[in-house]
């Protein structure tokens, strides 16, 4: 019989996107799929995407999960991390919801950011199911996560060597992790503790891209016993009708002439930094499609484009017809697939990195926070792009227009990046050919789900 799988994403588009893709993939392989949707969502992008996803995939069941609001929370805390916390604290509402599903579910896939829920669920008498985690970051960052509960991080050291894993550079570790009281840190640690309780960890990566780390995770030689790490990427886009306006502009541009500039769904930059980016893009003389965000949560975005970019810079951009700036949500995968795109200036969020890898688009990585430096290490090592490490974390220093100009030119004009990225794209495709590394692992997972082992 076809297995019935429930999926539990946490919050933020960087988490929802891979879950929607996984849901569509499992459904296309004859699984019955139920997606739990934590309500209310933090951003408008999440609610919009959920609505369009369920209308395009009527065979996937939606199950709303009303999250209990936090009693007291730091009003200045990151709203997405606060939502992770609210979801985790609402875990007691899940067993009745999950056991009401028909036919009964055989497995639950939890977001790494809500993995700690497994502690209560696995001990619940009404639920006899398998648990998996979907890790929404690189295998490299995940490998650090696995050891976090047992680590005391010292910023005075240069490198961190963990038994059985490739070594880490201390300067790439997100600064909040050095503060044990930080919510980001406490959540990561409790989520990391739950890893050993699940059957497997699926991840949107592929063997060739992170071979050393993936082999290390599955070698049995780490100091912690880990479940199977299951690389099943790159995730394919799900069906999403509708068009985005910037594609029409791209249609008019020559092949590989445009740099796509976007720092993800939730990166708020200062006006000073936005100005330097704009000046840098203009000076580079390259064509550009620049997606701009100035707030973490899209619902509170009120500032007009002109006010963000500055009237004179915006006029210069319009006058020179060298590029366009947009503030709305764009269909990034379609943009990256477009023949006019020749490079991607990105914060190196893991989904963005995988979307570039899948299409062989070279990246200029500007890592801003979280796991992004770990992701950029993977990108750089694989030959998918370049990474100016001295640009610092978000807000650490103002990156000047001349620096941006220089690196954009290098990205777009040095053809070695194009050919190396093309090789990455070919390897990504190979992972999904019949008998390819990811294709095989997905087959094994489905077999395990069918047999309920
Ligand atoms: N994305 C998009 N349009 C936008 C902004 C983001 O399609 O205007 C998508 C992007 O393709 C990716 C996800 O949202 O799938 C963002 O995830 P990522 O891990 O790259 O970064 P985060 O937003 O979590 O920092
Ligand atoms: N798939 C994927 N990533 C890829 C290619 C395929 O996740 O890069 C998945 C896809 O979601 C589906 C299965 O592989 O579950 C088979 O893909 P499909 O037959 O649709 O491939 P297509 O014919 O579209 O290339
Ligand atoms: N993360 C996690 N648990 C948390 C918070 C974050 O496992 O409580 C993971 C998350 O999956 C992400 C990475 O840590 O891939 C870095 O988090 P960040 O907030 O920078 O990324 P985002 O949430 O924007 O994807």
TrEMBL record:
<comment type="similarity">
    <text>Belongs to the UDP-glycosyltransferase family.</text>
</comment>
<dbReference type="Pfam" id="PF00201">
    <property type="entry name" value="UDPGT"/>
</dbReference>
<protein>
    <recommendedName>
        <fullName>Glycosyltransferase</fullName>
    </recommendedName>
</protein>
<dbReference type="InterPro" id="IPR002213">
    <property type="entry name" value="UDP_glucos_trans"/>
</dbReference>
<keyword id="KW-0808">Transferase</keyword>
<keyword id="KW-0328">Glycosyltransferase</keyword>
<dbReference type="InterPro" id="IPR050481">
    <property type="entry name" value="UDP-glycosyltransf_plant"/>
</dbReference>
């Amino acid at each position: 019989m076809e297995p019935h799988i429930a999926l539990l994403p946490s919050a933020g588009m960087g988490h929802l996107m891979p879950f929607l893709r996984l849901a569509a993939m499992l459904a296309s392989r004859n699984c019955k799929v139920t997606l739990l949707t934590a309500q209310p969502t933090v951003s408008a992008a999440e609610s919009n995407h959920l609505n369009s996803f369920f209308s395009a995939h009527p065979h996937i069941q939606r199950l709303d999960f009303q999250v209990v609001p936090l009693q007291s929370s730091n009003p200045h805390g990151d709203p997405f991390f606060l939502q992770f916390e609210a979801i985790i604290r609402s875990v007691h509402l899940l067993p009745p919801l999950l056991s009401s599903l028909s036919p009964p579910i055989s497995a639950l896939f939890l977001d790494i950011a809500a993995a700690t829920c497994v502690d209560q669920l696995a001990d619940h008498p009404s639920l006899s199911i398998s648990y998996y985690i979907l890790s929404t970051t690189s295998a490299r960052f995940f490998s650090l996560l696995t050891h976090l509960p047992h680590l005391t991080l010292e910023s005075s050291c240069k490198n961190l060597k963990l038994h059985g894993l490739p070594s880490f550079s201390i300067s790439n570790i997100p600064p909040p992790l050095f503060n044990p009281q930080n919510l980001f840190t406490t959540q990561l640690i409790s989520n990391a503790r739950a890893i050993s309780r699940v059957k497997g960890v699926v991840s949107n990566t592929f063997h060739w891209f992170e071979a050393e780390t993936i082999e290390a995770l599955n070698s049995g030689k780490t100091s912690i016993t880990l479940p199977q790490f299951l690389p099943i990427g790159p995730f394919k886009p799900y069906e999403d009708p509708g068009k985005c306006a910037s594609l029409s502009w791209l249609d008019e541009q020559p092949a590989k002439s445009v740099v796509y500039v976007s720092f993800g769904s939730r990166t708020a930059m200062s006006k000073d930094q936005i100005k330097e980016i704009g000046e840098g893009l203009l000076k580079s003389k390259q064509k550009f499609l620049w997606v701009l965000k100035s707030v973490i949560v899209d619902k509170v975005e009120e500032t007009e484009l002109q006010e963000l970019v500055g009237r004179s810079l915006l006029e210069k951009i319009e006058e020179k017809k060298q590029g366009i700036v947009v503030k709305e949500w764009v269909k990034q995968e379609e943009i990256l697939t477009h023949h006019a795109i020749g490079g991607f200036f990105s914060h190196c969020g893991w989904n963005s990195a995988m979307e570039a890898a899948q299409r062989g688009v070279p990246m200029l990585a500007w890592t801003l926070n979280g796991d992004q430096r770990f992701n950029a290490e993977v990108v750089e090592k694989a030959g998918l792009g370049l990474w100016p490490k001295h640009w610092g974390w978000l807000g650490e220093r103002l990156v000047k227009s001349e620096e941006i100009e220089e690196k954009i030119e290098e990205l777009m004009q040095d053809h070695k990046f194009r050919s190396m990225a093309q090789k990455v794209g070919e390897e990504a495709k190979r992972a999904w050919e019949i008998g390819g590394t990811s294709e095989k692992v997905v087959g094994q997972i489905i077999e395990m789900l069918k047999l309920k082992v």
